[in-house]
Amino acid sequence: MSKSLVRWLPLVFLPFLLTGCWDRVEIEDRGFTIGAAIDLEENLGNEEDKNEQHVYQGTYQLVVPGGLGQGTGQGGGQETAYQNLSTVSDSLFEQIRDLAKETSRTPFFAHLEMIIVSDDVAKVPGAFSNIMDLFLRDHEMRRGVKVLISKGNAGDVLKVEPKPENLPVMFLDSIIENAVKNPQMLQEVRIGTVHEYLASNNSFVIPKIEMNGERVDSEGAAVIHGHNDTMVDFISGKTTEGLNFIKGDYKGGLVKAKIDENLVVYEIKNAKSTVEVNTDDKNKIKFHIIIQTEGTIGESFKRFDYTKPKNIEKVQNAMEDEIKKTAETTVEKLRDDLKVDALGLGGYVQRKNYALWKMICDDWDHGDNYFSKSEIAIEVNAIIRAPGSIIQIEK
Amino acid sequence: MKSFEYGDGELGKKEIMFAVPSMVIGIGILSLPRLLANATNFYDGAIALLIGGALAILFTWIAANLSSRFPKKSFFSFTPLLVPKPIVFILNVWLTIHFIFFVAYEIRAIGEIAEQYLFGRTPVEILSVTFLLVVVYSVSGSRVGILRLNLLFLPIICFIAVSIALMNITYFEFQNLLPVFTTDWSGYVEGVKLSFFSFAGFEIVLFYVALMNRPKQAAKFAAAGMGLAVGLYLIIFTTCIGVFTNDTTSTMVYPTIELAKEVEVPGGFFERFESLFFTIWIMAIFNTTAMSLDIAIFSMGSLFRNMKKVTRILIISPLSYLICMFPQNINEITSFGTLISYSGGLVTIFIPSILLAIAKLRGIGKCE
């Protein structure tokens, strides 16, 4: 009798398991948040107060699935596929939780694509890394989220007219990926990479985004100083191009040069850079940067016979001068003007002479600033592989 | 001649070879890259990992070699031949407690990590007890069955570990590994210690070689199995440093999970690769926990010879569940784990070596 009772006992407890799953969330109830933009709302406390609190305004873009996938039909296309919600708080976590008060769908961040931080926020010491903290700490967030810095209001960027896409964030996302074609834009920076920069105290660059009326301007980049993780300044598209050349991040683009007053365009298919470093004198660390590019003639207003090696060489030399000029402008801007090593040259010293690096790493681009005293020589080696489909347009 | 026939309750060489890495790969692989990165500079942790791994392989070989000298005899039936009874008794109690704690640690850690990454609102207590119930179910059956399950799970685990490394290749930067040899000696010592203890768990060979039909091959295959675990750890560590850099790795709670989160596979379902990673990793923990619980039950059986297996299971499982709820936060769980690793380290370093020395000197037990 008692034995059979024991046997039936589990059945008594089993119904408790039927109360269901704690974590069940229907997909219709999820508010897929794909973009976040952080602006500075106000400065609480006076300027001298060391513990000044910053209050941020967060704008979050949620997908409205009903607005998506309307096919080719024109009817009913009025509904937008997204919803932008703004909340204000000094804690981003609180902002996210506040969102739930305003939207019927619980915000879900696992598909976050992009974080835009305004330059006002990035220029406040410590604020940039404070904002990154939540996005790295929370388990819902992934490490592939793209980070951008906006010139001006960040929330406005999320309102951009997304044509031909449905969602502003997806539109911006595709623009960033165009950096492969346009060297004046910076390659996408993922939050995982930002974490590496923040952990290592190295200076770095983040792509810039700016609303120019209705248009989006994504040329240039924001330079962030490693020692306090604060934004220093924006650099122009041309400077970014030089930076891409030096860092070996140049994926493709064009260089224009005048040969005997005629325009010739060199289309770069492939570029790489090698950096040699000489650390004999710590007050004059010497970098030798060799940029090597490969490509074809994209456009030639100069009537040249490109089968003649002499002519090819002439064009190559002209291109080398152009690229060198671009790279040197970047070096001047970063070394002499901003005095911030956004080129990652410190890493070469670290790998070459670790003992010296340990000594100078705190003063690399800060304090004594050994970086600003360094010597950077640039050598360019431009190779033209082919003249394109025609040799010259008229004979 | 066929060395293994299914259904005969005996183990072949393959089962032993798979049992060792299945036991070793567990909670430790999630946080080891951080610990190693903390102790050493840049990629120097790999050297520590290799030395620690070599030691682990050596001690696995010793433990398996010792057991294989006494074919078909389990640890507690051959130890009385070598050392006095009271010492055997102490060892027996120690090992029973050790494995009960091991089970407790595993079920708590899996509950904790599952709650953090997978379930937001389900309490840890429920997650742990559910997992424990599955493990209890598996150990209630045949002992050999658990070891055969390893054969099924381990290849999948290895496949996922390797694919994590491969999928991260785009983010892998070789220059993150440089410069080499910048760590000082104390860092290497710390690293070797950490790596060796992260390989703790191979003490199971003391118990499972007894089930082998050809124990002569045990040492070779157990050591090979350990080599597999070392290789896998090395792949994960290399990927962590190459992808994240040393500094960043040392700031992450579970770098291996972050590695899975870093991956982005285009096209919907697998975009979130970590969900797949968790599923597979839970299989790895399952193997570890099932084997520890099995040995705890077996070891307790040598203490109370007349007790039925079901009774032992019913005593040990609630006990380890109670123990697992003691630590209050993740730091306490970590120190709990460290304690168990040290206990396991002592078991694996001293006992088999001393016993093997005694056996050799006295000429007791011969592997034919």
Please specify the SSE layout and strand pairing:
The complex is a heterodimer of chains A (395) and B (368).
Chain A: H1 2-17, E1 30-44, E2 53-63, E3 82-89, H2 92-102, E4 106-108, E5 114-118, H3 119-122, H4 127-137, E6 146-151, H5 154-157, H6 168-177, H7 191-200, E7 204-212, E8 215-217, E9 221-225, E10 230-235, H8 237-247, E11 253-259, E12 262-278, E13 286-300, H9 309-338, H10 345-352, H11 354-360, H12 370-373, E14 375-386
Parallel strand pairs in A: 1-4, 1-5, 5-6, 6-7, 13-14
Antiparallel strand pairs in A: 1-2, 2-3, 7-8, 7-9, 9-10, 11-12, 12-13
Chain B: H1 13-24, H2 28-39, H3 45-68, H4 75-82, H5 85-117, H6 124-140, H7 143-167, H8 185-198, H9 205-208, H10 218-249, H11 255-262, H12 273-303, H13 309-324, H14 330-362
Characterise this structure.
The complex is a heterodimer of chains A (395) and B (368). Chain A has twelve helices and 14 strands. In chain A, strands 1, 2, 3, 4, 5, 6, 7, 8, 9 and 10 form a ten-stranded mixed sheet that branches. A four-stranded mixed sheet of chain A has the order 11-12-13-14, sandwiched between helices. Chain A is globular and about 100 Å long. In chain A, α10 packs across α11. Chain A has two domains: 209 residues, no CATH class; 139 residues, GMP Synthetase, Chain A, domain 3, CATH 3.30.300.210. With 395 residues, chain A is α/β, with parallel strands linked by helices. Helix content of chain A is 32%, strand content 31%. In chain A, β7 and β8 form a beta hairpin. Chain B has one domain: Amino acid/polyamine transporter I (Up-down Bundle). Helix content of chain B is 73%, strand content 0%. Chain B is an all-alpha fold and 368 residues long.
